[in-house]
Amino acid sequence: MKSVLYILTVLSVIGLAFWAYRENYATQQSLAETEKLHRNIQRAHARLAVLRAEWAYLNRPDRLRDLADINYDSLGLLPLAPEQFGIIDQVAYPMPPELIVTNPTDVSTMEADE
């Protein structure tokens, strides 16, 4: 009986060692993927910072003013003036759509029936 118990113990230890070995490699693979994702995120943040800097450089008011002056004949752009702005009360908002009742129910008759 002791030999069966010893064999079962040895087999369970071998099984647990195999399981721990597989879990170790799975964990290492997950850590490697996580590090790769972090590197990709850092690269994306760096690209985004460069794009924001380029956008800010291209949207300089003096540059846009010069472009508007150069392309006045084809675009017809004029500088903004204070009288071109309005008050929020002057904005015409659309009316909400009217709800259509397709299956009306008379509530007063329902209460009388009960």
Number of strands: 0
Which sheet architecture does the biggest sheet show? none
Q: What form results from the Cα inertia axes?
A: flat
Average pLDDT metric: 88
Low-confidence sequence ranges: none
What integer value in Å does the Rg equal? 37 Å
- Report the span from N to C terminus: 78 Å
Based on secondary structure, the structural category is mainly alpha
* Number of helical regions: 4
Elements, N to C (H/E): HHHH
| Binned strand content | under 5%
Helix content: 55-70%
3D architecture notes:
This protein has 114 residues and is mainly α. It is 68% helix and 0% strand. The protein is built from 4 helices and no strands. The protein has helices spanning 2-58, 61-70, 72-75, 107-113. The chain starts with a helix and ends with a helix.
What's this model, at a glance?
This protein is an all-alpha fold.
Protein traits:
Cell division protein FtsL; 114 residues; mainly alpha; 4 helices; 68% helix
Lay out the secondary structure.
Layout: H1 2-58, H2 61-70, H3 72-75, H4 107-113
Organism: Pseudosulfitobacter koreensis
Protein name: Cell division protein FtsL
